[in-house]
Amino acid sequence: MDTYVKLLRASQSVKARVDGHNCVPDLSESQFGALEALYHVGPLPQKTIGKKLLISKSNVVGIVDALEACDFVQRQRDADDRRVINVTIQQAGRDYIEATMPIFADAVLEEMKVLSAEEQSELSRLLRKLGRDRDA
């Protein structure tokens, strides 16, 4: 239980400090995460965005609605399966990510430098092991 509490507190503390840098203005964490995924992976079905961000289908719809209102993304029905809605990043979304990602990355690096490179690697390994889907 002690380890779990420490994990949550550390995560919340680091997140609060990174958020304090205000490097992602005007977007929620989930909106930024969706936009970042689309930028790096390419077009994705809404369902896949939800799985990547660990959020519900209804939350994905709201996130994509907000990003679409900013002209950051565009939705399109899949040509082969009309039930599937694909989301594609638009130029405004690319511009936003390219402007904010370096600032965000610098803030994260600043918070992580309390750990040595070896400690960061070990933490990464342990978190990957802990976060692995046990049903897969």
Keywords:
136 residues, mainly alpha, Arc Repressor Mutant, subunit A, three-stranded antiparallel sheet, 3 strands, globular
Largest pleated sheet:
3 strands, antiparallel
Secondary-structure-derived class = mainly alpha
Named CATH architecture: Orthogonal Bundle
- CATH class equals Mainly Alpha
Mean pLDDT: 92
Count of discrete domains:
1
Q: What's the order of the H and E elements?
A: HHEHHEEHH
CATH topology: Arc Repressor Mutant, subunit A
Count every beta strand, where a strand is a DSSP E run of 2 or more residues. 3
Overall 3D shape: globular
- Report the uncertain regions: none
Find the CATH superfamily. Winged helix-like DNA-binding domain superfamily/Winged helix DNA-binding domain
Q: What percentage of residues falls in helices of 4 or more residues?
A: 55-70%
Number of helices: 6
Q: State the distance separating the first and last CA atoms.
A: 25 Å
% residues in beta strands: 5-15%
Radius of gyration: 17 Å
Strand arrangement, major sheet: 1-3-2
What is the gist of this entry?
The protein has helices at 2-19, 29-41, 46-53, 57-69, 91-112, 117-131, and strands spanning 44-45, 73-77, 85-89.
Explain how this protein is built.
It is a single chain. By secondary structure, the chain is mainly alpha-helical. It has a single domain, classed as Winged helix-like DNA-binding domain superfamily/Winged helix DNA-binding domain (Arc Repressor Mutant, subunit A, Orthogonal Bundle). It is built from six helices and three strands. Strands 1-3-2 form a three-stranded antiparallel beta sheet. Helix 2 crosses helix 5. The radius of gyration is 17 Å and the shape is globular. It starts with a helix and ends in a 5-residue tail after the last helix. The mean pLDDT is 92.
